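Workshop exercise sheet. Pairs work together: one partner reads the sequence aloud, the other fills in the structure field after running the prediction. Swap roles for the next sheet.
Pair: D.N. / O.F.
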Amino acid sequence: MIYATAADARVPLVISYPSGGLLGDAGESVSEIARQYFGNVRTLSYNANHSTMGASTGASKKSATESLYVCLV
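Structure field:
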């Protein structure tokens, strides 16, 4: 797992993840997982437009909150 690899190497890890992602559906969060490996996890969030990968039946973009997780040992 990338979290363990980065923590073992004692290097920072930055992860970008949108609101409404699949982890939330599974009852997980990036910050919860990261805190198992890193002592310091900072979250920065901003509004973004995400591509819907073609969206043959709807809009080609949708609004989402994108979060950057900065994980430090």
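Discussion prompt: DSSP finds three helices and three strands in the chain. What would you look at next?
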